[in-house]
Amino acid sequence: MAKYSINVLERLSNVKAHTIRIWEKRYNLFEPDRTSTNIRYYNDDELKKLLNITILYENGFKISQIAKFNNTELSKKADEVSKLKHQTNSEITRMLIHMIDFNEGGFITSIDDAVAKIGIDQAFLSTIYPFLQRVGVMWQTGSIKTTHEHFVSNIIRRKLILAAEEIQPQPTKTPFLLFLPEGEWHELGLLFNNYIIRKHLRKVYYLGQSVPLQDMNEIIHKEKKIHLLLTITAVYSGRELIQYLFEVAKQFPENKIFVAGHQIAAIRATLPRNVYKILSPAELIEQLAHLD
């Protein structure tokens, strides 16, 4: 069972550590264990309890009222409330709880509920994408294991592939070639961008994970004009990342190259003239609106 510091709980729930301590002391909502050096830590059950509490609290329940529920009642009531209307934080919180429990049916239902309420585009943009960002925080802090990440990634992967396959592109628009650098295996961001680009009716050559640059030459030579998009999550950082982007630009100087992923936001160096940073889905959508 995972161990969470109160600061990690704050990041995952968006509830201030000071507030968590007040709820703990005044209402006996949590019972943290302590390390040998007397530092508090919380377990999975208490994280799930806090997440359920946030759903009710954000939907107008008073904390004194919430404190009267036992864990089963709390979970049931939070699930009922979050299904009534779409609230992004509540939807994301439900998804986090289902991920921690490895509850595939509940996780799929959360996605389907969001799609039913606000449509597939907004569900991906306002719920699934922020959820993945929250999962990234958990993974970086060691709060979840690789199994959790793979569990939800494969479910979302299936959803994204099915959604993208239903779209028929128009051959009149410049196509895209999508790939991950050699050694990069984190595919969800690329799949998400694939869906967005296809939604804008562009043909996509999707090469996927760990692609050597030389392997793309055949497709690039086949198309008279094509844009490139890649995402970088873990394989490069710092100077190596800059060097790699200059190498891509050098090999494909006539193509526009769009680069996204967790590592990209930290780039401060000047990039080659044909390389464009994409920091969010909204930025990609904005670029697509102005591309030939």
Please outline what is shown here.
The chain is an alpha/beta fold and 292 residues long. The chain has helices spanning 6-13, 17-27, 44-58, 63-66, 71-84, 88-100, 104-118, 120-140, 146-165, 188-199, 217-222, 238-251, 281-290; strands at residues 33-34, 40-41, 176-181, 204-211, 227-231, 257-260, 275-277. It has two domains: 6-163, Orthogonal Bundle (Multidrug-efflux Transporter Regulator, Chain: A, Domain 2); 168-290, Cobalamin-binding domain (Rossmann fold, 3-Layer(aba) Sandwich).
Verbal overview:
Helix 6 (88-100) packs across helix 8 (120-140), helix 7 (104-118) packs across helix 8 and helix 9 (146-165) packs parallel to helix 10. This protein folds into two domains: 6-163, Multidrug-efflux Transporter Regulator, Chain: A, Domain 2; 168-290, 3-Layer(aba) Sandwich (Rossmann fold), CATH 3.40.50. It has helices spanning 6-13, 17-27, 44-58, 63-66, 71-84, 88-100, 104-118, 120-140, 146-165, 188-199, 217-222, 238-251, 281-290; strands at residues 33-34, 40-41, 176-181, 204-211, 227-231, 257-260, 275-277. The strands form two sheets. It has a five-stranded parallel sheet with strand order 4-3-5-6-7, sandwiched between helices. The radius of gyration is 22 Å and the shape is elongated. It has 13 helices and seven strands. It is of the alpha/beta class and 292 residues long. The model has no long low-confidence stretch (mean pLDDT 88).
